[in-house]
Sequence to fold (118 residues):
Amino acid sequence: MITSPEDARLLFKRWTEDSSPLRIRLRSAVVIFEGVGLVEGFTTSVLNLGGNSWQLAVPLDGASFTFADPREATVASVREAEASRYEFGLSLNLASGDRLALMELKTLDEEPASEEAD
Fold:
């Protein structure tokens, strides 16, 4: 589903505030980059992504955005596999022709299950 730049910025804000881990894929004519990282910050014109040993500044001017929910995949096996790994994603078609995909990784519930005493 096509998403507005304003909606994309709301996702960037959520990912920044929550420090949500993202699967990041950048594909261009000269490089393919894949990694796991975070949204470190953003403005209306630049998205800053980073991981343990890398940083990436992505120009947003002229970009178009597409929201994806893995639960809406038409093929059942793909839907199950993707929904088990990702919350949702955002695809950016950049003005340069490059494509950036950001997929929010599911995290394990870190709270231990409560045990009832006998």
Q: What stands out?
A: Strands lie at 2-3, 22-27, 32-42, 46-50, 55-59, 64-68, 86-93, 99-105. The two ends are 51 Å apart (CA to CA). Residues 16 and 23 are 14 Å apart (CA to CA).
